Amino acid sequence: MYLRKPKLTPVVLFVLFLVTIGASQTKSKRYNLRGEVLGKNPGNYEITVKHADIPGFMPAMTMPFKVKTARAMEELQAGDKIAAVVVVNGDDYWLENVRITDKSDRTTARPASPPHLLAVGESVPDLPLTNQEGKTIRFRDFAGKAVLLMFIYTRCPMPAFCPRLSSQFAKIHGDLKKTPDDYRKTHLLTVSFDPKYDTALVLRKYGLAYLDNDASGFAHWDFASAAPGDLRQLADAFGLEYFEEGNQISHTMNIVLIAPDGTVARYWATEWTAAELEKALREQAAKAAAGSSQEGKRKSRP
User: What tens digit of pLDDT does each residue of 91-125 get?
Assistant: First the structure.
């Protein structure tokens, strides 16, 4: 929180603009975009674009955009200069009418083999993380629990990205508290893309804002960072792309449900609801509880 009146920088104005339109109307608005494609994620129908100022919408920056058509995803390549229309509807936005205006800077080198994306049923790498208390935690610490994992960074200015994720996780956390049995069998985990800035102290302050300033909530929801190399390994394992530009980090989104046995149970990208995530988390915890019950009965038989 600021003690002094903050300056209305372009990024702050952009955030206020999105919050205002998201709260006050649902009618779509359209803005012209020109920029360069830096990469694409076909599985999530997203491209990362370094774009010029978009008058009336946002300053020049690099960020991911959803693209609605398969044809556009197939045609676009890194290095392409494009013109498009940004459609904004509440806190959601995407590109339409994408046109390639210049292909001369396309990458001609053969792309490197993509990192291995963990499939459903594969084990999550047991890498060390540092949580909001400065304590080292690992994925094996949550064995026997269903874990819902997301990636954010605390300085994110995009209401439809990190703040939305954290707000929805806060709702799930609050709902789970009402059913103590499910609360004990589940865990929430937030990992930062920004380990240089998101120290344990910063993550603790950020987490408290979504826990109604109740530090006891950290027993069920960890906010953590990782060493740069470990963070890259985790991101690759879960199909995430990110890179830093100034004080901003452009990144894709993937929410991961980890089963109590430490394997990937399910992924979500941009299309999901808090109710859907919560239902899947409870179901995964229930399956584990049922399996443990059956195993206990077998062991108790003479």
Answer: 678 899 999 999 988 865 444 455 678 999 999 99
Domains of the chain: residue spans and CATH:
10-102 (2.40.50.320), 129-296 (3.40.30.10)
> Residue 235: exposed, middle, or buried by beta-carbon count in 10 A (0-12, 13-18, 19+)?
buried
pLDDT, tens digit (0-9, with 9 covering 90-100), for 166-176:
999 999 999 99
Q: Are 186 and 146 in contact (CB under 8 A)?
A: yes
Q: Are 230 and 113 in contact (CB under 8 A)?
A: no
User: What whole-number distance in Å separates Cα of residue 81 and Cα of residue 37?
Assistant: 6
Q: What is the pLDDT of residue 24?
A: 39
Check: pTM over 0.85? Answer yes or no. no
Residues 6+ apart with CB under 8 A from 2: none
Instruction: Return d(Cα 150, Cα 255) in angstroms, integer.
Output: 5
